[in-house]
# Entry
Amino acid sequence: METHALFTEKQRFNQWWIWLILLGINGVTIYGLIQQIVFKKPFGDNPTSDSGIIFGAFMCSLLLAVFLSFRLETKIYKGGIAVRFFPLQLKTRYFAFDDIASMEIREYKPIMEYGGWGIRGFGSNRALNVRGKIGLQLIFKNGQKLLIGTQKAKELEDILAPFKK
# Structure
């Protein structure tokens, strides 16, 4: 793969409501853990075992850590587009401009078209996004479609202008 990127964008989930939910769940489980393990007061009307509450707190903390690590990385090179949704995609996927029939920056409806944010989609119509409703729509010569979410639509449009067919 090429070494000098013409365009780079890294995006993360930064919607306040996602973090409110995740931190709220973590806060409740850690509070329950402290109540039951440290102060020896059963947590709730039907408390779980000590090992159960430790496991629950661990899993909630793990979920928070995974969400903190999520990032969508997009790079444009002279020969194509590289994209990775870390940590779900450990390897960067590279799409050569020669394999792309058309591309455009467009507004989309994340929930209606793709079922939300993340690695989403149905059949040959896929999306990689973390927030917003603007993306780079790629249509490949084999009929597959991929939408890559962006927060830098104007900059991306300017970089891709010479490569459009």
